[in-house]
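User:
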Amino acid sequence: MKLSSALLALLLFTVPALAASEEDYIAAREKFHAQFKLKDGEPITDAISKAEENARGELEKQMQAIIGASGVKGAPAQGKLNLDSLIEGDMGFRLLDGIVFKLKDDSQVLVTTKSLLTRWLKTEQEIWKNNSRHGPPAEIDAAMRAENFYTQALSHDAAVTRYAEIPVTEPNAYAMLIAHQQDVGPVVPKEIIVSVLRDNRLFVWTAPAAAKTAMFPPCAAIWTEFERKSLAANRDKKGAPDAMEKLEQEGHAKMRACYNERAKAATFFPALVKQAQELIERTR
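Assistant: Predicted structure:
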């Protein structure tokens, strides 16, 4: 089928314009990163803080134009830029580029484009090339299933810690019950994260769990035993820090594996499955 000259002209004009807007945003963001790169020991003055806030305001307008409407049922018309700082070394530097829409039920959804996500993952690979444990995978599908993707993309304040996978029927979607932790050890997970890749967009939901969750005593006991071994290693002065960390990481992982298995039969779990599926449906 031949395209009319008018339609062909429209397509040739529209595609570069869409691509250029993301390129313009990235160029502006990198310019601000260079502008706010502080010297060693340089304090963040009120003037720097105000200028940085204004710069994020400029970027927010550009990103709002790129994302447009959220495409999420019940979301407000406009959201906020998902960048907390443009100052390297500051908390919230280099979060995932996108717009966060906050809803009345204390949930929020980050919306970004597939191309911005791909670019961000590539940058993260370079940042964490010498410490892959903290960096997200390069492939989108693997990243959506990785805890450290959400830690680096959403907030650097505390690590996103998966306690249970939540099954969903949607292709290109993933859900999990999580806690935000600054240290290892058992806590009660009270939030869910649901991510959906739909066409050229990624939606990342964060929401309070729809049911009251709990810690399973047998899983907590696994951690207690490894903690005991860790304390014993601390009494052995030879290589104690390494031995302690290895035991704590192993105990933390086995405790969460236990939780993941037991959660499937828990009375609260069906409500979480239903909640995750409902959040996915809201992105249609």
